[in-house]
Amino acid sequence: MRKKTYEEIKHYIEEENDKGCKLETSKEDYINTHQKLNLRCKCGTPFSVSFHEIISKNKLQCNECGFKISGEKQKMDGAFVYNFYIERDLIPQFKPEDYKNAKIKLPYICSHHLGVVQYISYDNLKHNKGCKYCIIDKNRSVREQGYKKIVEDKGYIYVGTIYKNKVTYYQYKCPKHLEYGVQEISSSNFKDEGCVLCGREKQGLNRRVKIDVIKNVFKNRDYEYYEGNDYQGNTSPLKYKCNKHPELGWQETTYANIKRAKTCIKCIYEGISGENHYLWKGGISPLHNYLRYKINDWKRDSLKQYNFCCGITGIQSNNLVVHHMYGFNLILDEVLFELNLDIRKEINLYSDKELLLIENLLVKKHYEYGLGIPLLPYIHDIYHKVYGRGNNTQEEFNEFKIDYLNGKYNDLKEVS
Predict the structure, then answer these.
(1) Domain edges within the chain
(2) Closest by Cα among 265, 277, 264, 249 to 218
């Protein structure tokens, strides 16, 4: 770059830039553009500056005038920044003159989250950063849309999402079971599981006995199965006709009952006479009585389970009877069947090894079928007066409990 002449410098300072400055250094004193030149500000204040500083910093005024110009510029920039915050739905908690530069964090309140003072620099705000709560809400909204799609893709009605111990839970309703209300399940389990009732129905279908098996049971009982039956489960009413007693016409039973024993009225009467009766003294009764004392541990566990209280009235007593929810005679029949042992008239007709096998399997099956229900003796007597002894079931007991609490057997209480 060639050396500038004194005239060129003087022209640049006094004429090209309308700043009102005058060059006071004489032509004789001028050496080059690096030396300090004496100038007089338009306010009359003298100051010194090199020509390079004039070019690079536009310094054509004294320090005091420079501060005034800088302050005016800063004030103008502060107003712009102040309005910029307002345009972003932020309420500034600073004055325009508080703005110094784009890096300083300035206080504000988000119009969507009042009451919380936050800080952000103008530089960050320009780059689409802002209220952290709005950002969280936006991200959550995006996640919610994703969760909603996951739930609706499985055919459910999306309700919402909650978080427990850093685990995401979906809240939803099943269109098939709206009466069940809002259900919730963790996102990790939702992939394989869903509506509780749908799951139970599916499980029920998987466990449901095949119709061919049911027909075969009726056939083995020498019964004719009615093809118009609507089988829905073990307790569904099923029509049949006994081939030995066709005069009785179509009778009704359930698969739960028919798989245990014959249910034809006349077949039952024929089966409970003489040696066929389960209480016949010359048959299984001695074995039955012998084994009653082998389940004492099961009885104690049943009493402890109910805290020595009656399973119907809740009354605590030292004189309770443990009722079998699944009949003792039914369990004993299964034990003898599985061990391939017949019914013998006397206990001594069984070997010690056979008795031990019977006893161990009997106790095991008692626990498999579940603990018994402690009852006050008079309630236990009423139950067997109503439903008889032997072949008792859970369904019968549930029915009896409801009827008893509703006062159906008040007359029998007095008799007992």
Answers:
(1) 6-61, 66-130, 133-204, 211-271, 274-415
(2) 264
